[in-house]
Amino acid sequence: MTATQQTVLVVDDDAAIRMLCRLNLELDGWRVLEGASIPQAREQLADESVAVVVLDVHVGLGSGIEFLEELRRERPHLKVAMLTGSDRIGDLESDAVIPKPFTIEQLTSTVAGLAAQQA
Fold first, then answer.
1. What separation in angstroms does the CA of 13 have from each of 38, 96, 113, 116, 117?
2. Can you tell me the mean pLDDT for 37-43?
3. How far is it, in rounded angstroms, from Cα 71 to Cα 26?
4. Phi and psi dihedrals of 59, rounded to 5?
5. What's the predicted TM-score (pTM) here?
6. Residues 6+ apart with CB under 8 A from 48
7. Which of 110, 87, 104, 98 lies closest to 19 in space, CA to CA?
8. What sign results for the dihedral spanned by CA atoms 97, 92, 86, 53?
9. Measured between alpha carbons, how far is 15 from 65 in angstroms, rounded to an integer?
10. pLDDT at 2 > cutoff 90
11. pLDDT tens-digit series, residues 57-88
């Protein structure tokens, strides 16, 4: 099943990770937006309808965990998958966790599963 042009926002300060996610999610039928920082992610969310956010725990100088808390307050129904290379991320209120390194299948199946929960 393809994403039928639903939009996913990938937020990571690592350009290579964003590109890897974008290319593979686009191949799976998604429209992909990117944010290299928390302020860029906020801009994208203000301008676009997004089904799923893939959010790195550490986004440059910003905290993905703090941004997740903000999203929970302001957009409680938005599905969020956290990207993390850490074993210890505490009690997150994310909808899913994608461990780094991840496989393409882990990424695409997690995003598709979260989008299906919204339908």
1. 9, 20, 24, 27, 27
2. 97
3. 24
4. -115, 90
5. 0.93
6. 7, 9, 33
7. 104
8. positive
9. 20
10. no
11. 999 889 999 999 999 999 999 999 999 877 65
